Structure formats: C-alpha cells, structure tokens
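Problem 12. The chain below contains 90 residues. Write out its predicted structure in token notation.
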Amino acid sequence: MTEKVGTLLAGGTVITVDRQRRIYRDGAVAMRGNEIGVAGKRAVLAARYDAKHTRDCRNKLVTSGFVNSHLQRPAGAWKMADSLNALARR
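Solution.
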C-alpha cells in the first residue's frame, strides 16, 4: 500500500541536514505541502509514495535548509551603512 504525498522530487543528488549528513546519489524527497516528509533512495520512495506531482531532478542537487539568503546581504549592508553614518556624525 502506498502513501499519498503532494510532490516527489526524484532522481537528484539529495544532501540531507540530518545528524548523519546523508547523501543519496539517486535520491528523492517526498513533500507534504511545503514540508519535507522524508528523504531517501529514489527507488524506495517511488515504491512507497503515490505522488500527485513528480519532479525530475536528475543531474540536479536537492538540498534543504536555505533561508532567503539573497535578502541577508542587503539587510546587513544597510545596517552597516547606518552604523557608519552614526559614527561619522560623532
């Protein structure tokens, strides 16, 4: 019996952020909405989950844990500019 999930990211190199820092070369990630359900070997997850959508991730790197990093640098630069302006006024 298979379990239903929204999306299966299949076939890519999956790098986990679990304690073992596992890497699955022909891996998959089962997604429930916007949340990661489970990561593992593609063949195992494809047999276990019935996905509404399957994304072909062959020749791609699949990772998690990134936060809109493109917003971090400008925010830090603005804070630094404010600090430099405050020092210049002294």
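Discussion. The domain at 3-88 is CATH 2.30.40.10 (Urease, subunit C; domain 1). Students who got a different answer should revisit the alignment rule from Section 12.3.
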